[in-house]
Specification:
764 residues; alpha+beta; Trefoil (Acidic Fibroblast Growth Factor, subunit A); 3 domains; 6-stranded antiparallel sheet
Length: 764
Amino acid sequence: MSTLSDGTLSASSGYSKNIGESAVRRKHATSNPHQSNSTDWETNSEDKEVRDIIEKTSRLKIGSQQSSQSAFVKYISPLALTALSALVRIYHIDAANYVVWDEAHFGKFGSYYLKREFYFDVHPPLGKLLVALSGYLAGYDGSFEFESGKAFPDDMNFAFMRLFNCLFGILVTPLTYRTAVLAGFDQWTCWFVSLMVIFEQLSLTLSKFILLDSMLLFFTVFTFFCLVNLHKVCSERMEMSKLGFKWFLLTGISIGCVCSVKWVGLFVTILVGLYTGYDLILKYFQVTSTDTLNWKTYVKHWILRVASLIIIPITIYMLAFKVHFQVLNHTGPGDGSISTLLQASLVGNNLQYGPRTVASDSLVTIRSQGLSPNLLHSHAHNYPEGSGEQQITTYGFKDENNEFEIEIANQAGTGGYVVQENCIRLKHSKTGCYLGAHPLAAPITKKHFEVSCSSLSNVSFTSHEWILDIQSQETSPSDQFRDENESELHPISTAFRLKHKELGCYLATTGNPLPSWGYQQGEVVCKYPYLSKDKTTWWNIEEHRNENLEAPAVEYVPPKPKFWKEFVLLNYGMMASNNALVPDPDKFDKLSSEWWEWPILNTGLRMCGWGDDDTKYFLIGNPFVTWMSNTGILFCIVYTLFSLFRYQRQSTSNTDSIQSMVVQCLLPFLGWILHYVPFILMGRVKYLHHYVPALYFAIFSAGFLMQKLVGQNKLFPPVLKIAVYLVVDALIIFAFWYMRDLAFGMKGSSKQYQNLRLLNSWMI
């Protein structure tokens, strides 16, 4: 037997020798028929013996070597890397005993869950539910206000809550290592990629606090890990096996989770979708061109992917909101941004139902039933263009500027009540002006008309008159309120439209935020809807007061809210609020940064106060990791173009090479594109931490660079390859160690840390 270069034993020489001897015996037996029976028995016996020896040798020698390597790859190496990751992330996790940066938001949201008070936020609920879980496990009752910079109470185990969040950041490391192994990287490259993730300071610093970023990164990494496993399953055509079902199921679950933490999870979802589409196209050509797949099986592939990658994620996403609604069953600070029916279902709500029929002189608040369900609002500020009159907006918080007084233009035959097709005027209670519309372009959505507030003396009365158009009446579960007149306007239960008497357009919302002159409040317009069921033109009376009318003898029981409707409204409200997070040109935000600054680390972020007594944190990436990953992205682009050129010239047709390039180069590069380019296009305010998921994929591109230029370079002797890897790994660790205080916390005056200011733009 011979020894291979990797230390395994070969049975090839012995196997050849025995096969040759057996062939000689067979030839001799054929030339001497008198001895054939004896010789055949001896030959078969010897062949069996040789096969047994080969099998036992292979099992005892090579098998033991592979088993040892497998144990190292599966257990020892990832455990050691995970321990290192835990060390640098947990170290000094409680150094700052006060609220740091966005802990003021996400810690507060966790508190609302523990107090069961309804709140509104732009992010889905899963991550904040997990924050609440960490508080519950820590024995926290939700009473702390999480004011920025405020010290935690002595009896609050904030360190446990941070540790719970940190666990997600730690678990990114073993997932990264296993993903690199499955992608086909050699062991040195797997370590290189893992060390880049461990000592990447953006995610490392964020993992030390009660934030959503570690959860988002973990579920993004887990989704990519599942995708690499899917690629392996699809490459081996094992989709319909138990293993295939397992990874499709896990991929669907991971997509549902990552999208339920932040909508940024949609980017890695698109990556899975692109790969799935690519795979289905290949299978389509197998059906139509090669006949290696039949239509029945092809349809099964579609069903499997729709069920696992679409239905399961949507179910998980909706389940997160179902839990959200179930837990937050008490009134809270987010009441102003949700529908009237949902508010009415909350324990302790302060809605003033008032008399059951709206009449002249009724004081009301009016809520939109569109996809931005805020309250009709006005304030003593004028439009800078158009009519120049007082602004009409929608507002997500309750205040006295939301109150309007109803006047009936013609009360004949109505008994003073507001009924179907009445002409009414809406007088803003605080400023005394009237709701009107003009044939002028709206401030944002130019195809619709402007809605403003002005006095009756400025224009004709009819420009302020609106015709009531009742659309539906929700039925109370109480028998005492089921027979209400459907032609009358009732608070809470009546959905109506308001048609402008002169222009014929309808009062509506667009969901677009106004600029800073409108305080980012919602745009209100007068539009011509294509359908009567256009919910942007639907409104309802929320609170109702009228001293001239009697309140019902028993308390009104409002209709129950419908989950589907509230789910859609809340999600659209989140989207509208997210779009409203635009930079204010009149203010300088020293924490924000632009997309082009992230890969070059032009700007860092101060996460807290910068006084001498503060433990200070400066959010910035590990320079070597970030700049090396940029090089990896450029290398992927060049290598892909070169490979396409070779393929076009038919210089290569190695299927294994193509498959490895897909998972090692193309998928990470697409992941980086999908997580980076959207921030170039979107107009919302941006911060450095938004680059964390994109940077993760860029790190894999750097791994691909090392694999091709070093690991698979036939010109490098093994010793030189190892030396290069050791040097690069040492640079990763050195860069982190040199800048460790930025992540671990800086004590005393910031002047003593000026040596860490590698770029003049860093505000250390």
